[in-house]
Design brief:
Blueprint lengths: L5 E6 L12 E11 L2 E6 L17 E5 L3 E3 L1
Antiparallel strand pairs: 1-2, 1-5, 2-3, 3-4
Length: 71
């Protein structure tokens, strides 16, 4: 994927069916790509996050390639 690509970041647990922490996809833009690491800037808030890491629109975080797909 190229920098600037719109992506979906898979977050949460598939074992939780409802509420905070459940499996969801959050929109972002790819800003870095090194090996299996994907750096993403979120384009929307993630109100169902249970860990305070990268939860607001504009936050930057990194995920493994398997958690990031094209939007």
């Amino acid at each position: 994927m190229r920098y600037g690509t719109l992506v979906l970041v898979k977050r949460g647990s598939p074992n939780i069916k409802f509420g905070p922490g459940r499996l969801r996809k959050v929109k972002g833009v790819l800003i870095g790509n090194k090996g299996s690491r994907r750096d993403v800037r979120l384009l929307q808030n993630d109100p169902d996050a249970t860990i305070g890491y990268c939860t607001k629109k504009g936050d930057v975080g990194w995920w493994s390639a398997s958690c990031v797909s094209r939007a």
